[in-house]
Amino acid sequence: MSDSPVVPHHIAIVMDGNGRWAKRRFIPRLAGHKQGVDSLKRCVRACVERGIGVLTVFAFSSENWNRPADEVSGLMELLALALGREVPQLKKDGVRLHFVGSREGLSSKVREGLDAAEAVTAHNTRLILNVCFNYGGRWDIAHAAAQLASRGEAITEASLHAAMGMSHVPDPDLIIRTGGEMRISNFLLWQAAYSELFFSECLWPDFDEAALDEALQAYRSRERRFGKTSEQIAPVHSQSMPG
After folding, report:
1. Residue 21 and residue 206 in contact, taking contact as beta carbons nearer than 8 Å
2. What's phi and psi for 169, nearest 5 deg?
3. How many other C-beta atoms are found inside a 10 Å radius of the C-beta of residue 93?
4. What gap in Å lies between CA 175 and CA 196, rounded to an integer?
5. How far is the C-alpha of 205 from the C-alpha of 37, rounded, in Å?
6. Global confidence as pTM
7. Who is most buried in 106, 180, 225, 243, counting CB within 10 A?
8. What does DSSP assign to residue 11?
């Protein structure tokens, strides 16, 4: 019997496959990223409809700076465009935006856009949308440790967790990666300690409500023990029956 809630409170997604989606259609990689924005909009709506409280997505990793310069600049422009176009609707839909990651290396235009999007949606409560941008799990841990050290605070599990970029939400219950790759690629390394993992063959631009529901169904079938035994979290039915 599953001990997972019917709906996970927090879902995190590695949105992989935009470039391959475009390549298969003989169109520029950036076109795949643009289609990926539409897929994210669809996913946000689906999460709201299904009662999911937190959605975290991996939008741009600290390693993505190593991609071709034209693709990186195109991604930055796409982010700036998406902020201006999508934030008003997100505000209307009750979505609160958080951008998690280093602001170093970002243009002043992009940094101002991130700050403004967070401010204008700060009072929304229907869904928290964390966008990990210029983010890496190792960076998150090292940055938190450096903050504690600079303040002369002891580095413990609790203090380190509190200093991280995702301290405002519980750890993810379910991490989904699209695109068929079976790794987490430096995403939420600390927070993923007890997350359920689901790997989808679907390329991110094709990820729709049915693909999300497939991941949710898999989650519902899992038994989350958190170090305990099955008997501790869900006593065997026969033990409770009269003998």
Report:
1. yes
2. -135, 155
3. 16
4. 6
5. 8
6. 0.89
7. 106
8. E
β-partners of residue 13 are 57, 176
* CATH classification code of 10-221: 3.40.1180.10
Q: Around Cβ 213, how many Cβ atoms within 10 Å?
A: 12
Alpha-carbon distance values, 83 to 32, 114, 154 (Å): 18, 8, 38
Distance CA(189)–CA(136), nearest Å, equals: 8
| Alpha-carbon span 94 to 122, nearest angstrom | 10
The set of catalytic residues is: 16, 64
Tens-binned pLDDT, residue by residue, of the chain (243 aa): 455 568 999 999 999 999 999 999 999 999 999 999 999 999 999 999 999 999 999 998 888 888 888 888 888 888 888 888 999 999 999 999 999 999 988 888 889 999 999 999 999 999 999 999 999 999 999 999 999 999 999 999 999 999 999 999 999 999 999 999 999 999 999 999 999 999 999 999 999 999 999 999 999 998 766 666 666 566 543 343 343
Which structure tokens are listed for 127? 């869904």
Q: Find out whether 47 and 119 touch, Cβ atoms under 8 Å.
A: no
